[in-house]
Amino acid sequence: MSESGGPNSAYSVTYGYNDNGDRKQVTYQTDAGTNRWLYDDYKSLGQADKLSRAFQTLCQLDSSGNHTPEEFHYALDSMGRIRAATFAMSPTAGYSPSGGSTYYTSAYPATSRARAYYAYDSGGRLMGLENYWDSAISAC
Fold first, then answer.
1. How far is the C-alpha of 16 from the C-alpha of 82, rounded, in Å?
2. Inside any domain, residue 13
3. Measured at the alpha carbon of residue 35, what is the angle toward residues 67 and 86, in degrees to the nearest 5?
4. Could you list the residue range(s) of the whole structural domain that residue 65 is in?
5. Going by C-beta distance under 8 Å and a sequence separation of 6 or more, which residues neighbour residue 41?
6. To the nearest 5 percent, what fractions of the chain are helix, strand and coil?
7. Domain total for the chain?
8. Residue 101 to residues 61, 68, 69, Cα–Cα distance (Å)
9. N or C terminus of the chain with fewer C-beta within 10 Å?
10. pLDDT, tens digit, for every residue of 19-75?
11. Using an 8 Å Cβ cutoff, are 104 and 89 in contact?
């Protein structure tokens, strides 16, 4: 699926979908260049008779389609409300994934990152938002 035009005729967006109908990739083309993003780690949400799906990882891709360190992680509850997000992550020094793998794994966690935690009341209204900055400390 593609969109283009609007007030800027040099702007276009192309969407790609996987076999489940989930958005898998989006490409933005503008005068400033091309950006590609990967949607991944989908989770089923909602009631059993009316499920929907939402992505939990958003990663910028390079021109070859490989992951970059620019990655966002989202934790959602069963109703699709965001519970936590991590972003502004820095990869482990010297680590470069191969074959389109992510920069962040349990073996190679982010050395620093921002985190946000969301709290809701029983009616589903946002009650609070807490922000943290994590910096990894290497063992001596």
1. 24
2. no
3. 55
4. 37-135
5. 55, 56, 57
6. 0, 55, 45
7. 1
8. 11, 9, 11
9. C
10. 989 999 999 998 889 999 999 999 999 888 888 999 999 999 999 889 999 999 999
11. yes
